[in-house]
Amino acid sequence: MTKYLKYTNKVVTFCIFVLLVNLNVLIGYSTINPLSEFNSVTQNGQILQFNETNAYNHISSQLDIGYRVPGTSDHDFCADWIRDQIHTHVDSIITHNFTIQKEGQAAYECQNILGKMNTDEEKIVILGAHWDSRNVSEKDYIDRHLPIPGANDGASGVAVLIELARILSYYTDNLTCQIWFLFIDAEDQGLTNGMYGIQDWNYVEGSPVFVEEIDDFYDSSSEELECFILLDMVGGTNLTFIKESRSDEALHESIFNEGRNLGYNDSFPISPKIMSITDDHIPFKSLNIPVIDLIIDFIYGDWTHHHTHSDDLSNIDIESLRITGRTIESFIKNYFSLNSSQTWNDDDFIFPLWGYSLIGVVIIVAVTVVFLYRKK
Ligand SMILES: [Zn+2]
């Protein structure tokens, strides 16, 4: 009888052990399982308001304006349209006019557009996107000398910035930084193969001029540039961001973590492709501030419409706009709010959630072993 009881005891203990392990794994899993993509709440309970339909419509409006190629009236009209879209959301708008004239070539009048929000704060977070669109479609099979619609390459970043300006304008009482919405001109006209593009132009012609003259736009004795976040081609299908090799490591990790915490695991992979892209973030790096280029693999990746006529609305995915917009909104709200305790460049070790589950299993095994063999 005693033997039988002892045997039953062991079976019951074993069953409790299995039950506890399952419970522990379940609890662990529920904590590491990222929030649903359709959940609109960030980790610290802030509501995310970025509206992807608004962003999509902003892309459509830019395409309706026409090709945003420097030297054309549609280009200048689009600049007016951008100012018109943001003027109610920001404290002030600065138009940074500049001329690009290569030796022996025609002069092009260009403009960077800067919308400043929450200008009483000291720190400045710059969100940037280029707003010009390419004057040729050299990667297409037909009509290579005609411009691209630039729905993703150009218009998507602009669209996300405008919608971010709208929703963050409701949030300024809580913001601990200024936000600059910087619409950069003359990024996408570089001459390739000696024949496509504007004669003698490089890619990224507008941001170096802005950076050169940046002291005209802020007071470095009382204001401080915090970081520069570039959005380029953020609205296409199959959105998968790469790790641009000259982007700041901590800033990259913080933004990618932010995206993954919102459930956007495919767009912000744990092991992204690492590529080196010449883009508008490079001139800002020379200011010794952390920069990041949020961009896709447009060379070998899943989005194959770069510099072709099919960079149009049919290859935009509204979900991609939501993923980008909400991740940046969440990043700003989590790191630059009155009640936020995090700093994005904080490299404190964060204990992984699965670790708690593992500790739980170890404790349960230890307790069970002690319980089973204590009377031996
Ligand atoms: Zn381009």
Question: What does the model show?
Answer:
It contains nine helices and eight strands. The protein is an alpha/beta fold and about 375 residues long. It folds into two domains: about 1-35 and about 350-375; about 50-335, Zn peptidases (Aminopeptidase, 3-Layer(aba) Sandwich), CATH 3.40.630. It has a six-stranded mixed sheet with strand order 1-2-4-3-5-8, sandwiched between helices. The chain has a two-stranded parallel sheet with strand order 6-7. Strand 3 (about 125-130), helix 4 (about 150-170) and strand 4 form a beta-alpha-beta unit. Helix 1 (about 1-30) runs antiparallel to helix 9 (about 355-375) and helix 2 (about 50-65) packs across helix 4. Bound molecules: zinc ion.
What descriptive keywords fit this protein?
376 residues; Aminopeptidase; 2 domains; two-stranded parallel ribbon; binds zinc ion
The count of β-strands is 8
Secondary-structure element order, N to C: HHHEEEHEHEEHEHEHH
Helix content: 25-40%
CATH superfamily of the largest domain: Zn peptidases
Computed Rg:
26 Å
CATH class label of the largest domain: Alpha Beta
Number of helical elements: 9
Shape: elongated
Mean pLDDT: 89
Largest sheet: 6 strands, mixed
Ligands present: zinc ion
Low-confidence stretches: 28-40
List the domain count as a whole number: 2
Tell me what portion of residues adopts beta-strand conformation: 5-15%
The CATH architecture of the largest domain can be given as 3-Layer(aba) Sandwich
